[in-house]
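REVIEWER CHECKLIST
Item 1: Sequence provided? yes
Item 2: Single chain? yes
Item 3: Sequence as submitted:
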Amino acid sequence: MHFASAYLDELRNHSIQYCSTGEDGIVPASQLTCFHAHIRDDPIADSFCIGSGATWDAPTQRFRLDCPTRRLPDANETARGLIPFKALQPQWFETGPKYIFNHFVVLGDKDKPKPSDAAQLEVRAESEVPTSLPGTPSFVILVKREGASNLWHSLMEIWSMTMTMDVLRMSRKANGEPFYQTHQDMDNTHVVVLDDHGPGPTLDMWRFFSRNPIVTFKNMVENPDLVPAPFKSPEKAANTNIIVPLPGGSNPLWHGDWAVKDCTPEDAPLLKLFIKRVFEHFDVPLLLGPKLVEDENDKIVVTFIDRRGTRQLLGNEKLLDALHNRYPDVTVQSVDFATLPLPEQLRLIQDTDVLVGVHGAGLTHTMFMRAGAGAVVEILPDGLGYKGFRNLAAMTGHKYFSGAGTMVMPEELEEEKKKEGDGKQNERPSPTPEKSKKQKRNERREEAKKWQLAHVRIEEDRFLALMDVAIKSVYNEGLRNEYVIKR
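Item 4: Structure as written out by the authors:
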């Protein structure tokens, strides 16, 4: 259910209203509805929220909901798996509803009516409170990102946001209307980025459900003219909603990503929908299936992901030269995706038959290859058992091949170069003193983290053997017709 509509149903069916009616029966000016899914291997719920009657409090630089929260769900809500508002869990990198409500939103009473005024108000049961007043609703999506440069993390966040909006489209308020209607509400939807990570290549994708420019929290605070229009009009407050979306850390692709999943493209309609939305957003044609080659001898294209930071494939130029010499009829290209605009990356990857790289965010492009028509090669630091990209390949119908490389820390590489320059590479290392148990334990902990910073080295014969399997696996895709074993 992680990648099908059942995941959206799980969220829709586990919604809870957190604002409480006062002891005097006065209905709060705001409402806060949160949605929860319980499908992870840990006890943490995937949660997102929408609050109506939202305002912007410039003096405190906080968004405000006049909503005193209920302490606990009632017995029926608890039986349904609903949780108290205070039980929301923080997500990694200071993201998620818990963090946003703690740092950017004020909840509570404001200008509570006096008893004389309250007597004139109609007292209603909470279940009868309308979630909006007549008029055009406005929406402000509050975005707190993990970062801006890592494509995998960024896309997981944006995909989570699209699922948030889909659930709001599926769900109904007390008056029977959906919380969000895509075409009608997009002109009245705004995005406020709460972090200071900078734009990054995927920033504009946060506008999947908005036709308005993105505003950063910092700029909004410094320049009141940039405050989204709904907050500038007091009469619109009752129809202004803030949306705190699912964080990237709750994306289903993170669930059990260290285990092999028995997934097929038929199991992942939500992934297909997200891919379609990405291509439509950038107005890039989404091509499916094997290439419609004009000639059966059209070259196979191998794209190597050229990492320039950590986890470089050491000696990759020599390895790719050897690959080209073995397969002169194959186009072998090395690409630093970070230097290309995202639409250009999509076009390039659509022409790729075999995608190869060291474990890292570049392999996110697996999802943008022609579905069911390519091969993915992942070179992992030795001992790393991550299965996320293998599972992603399965859900997009690609063949997947992996190989292990030796980890080489940057300082080790510098030492190697120094020894080569001094002619001491064959010297026997000095004996090291015996280490304590504590030192060994600390070293094991550091060893577990090494793969994130280490470069990777793989012998030429092993690299070629790995690429042999991958390239030959696409020899007969579509109209291609090649012998796997030639004379």
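Item 5: Key structural point noted by reviewer: The chain has two domains: 5-252, 269-419+444-472.
Item 6: Recommendation: ____
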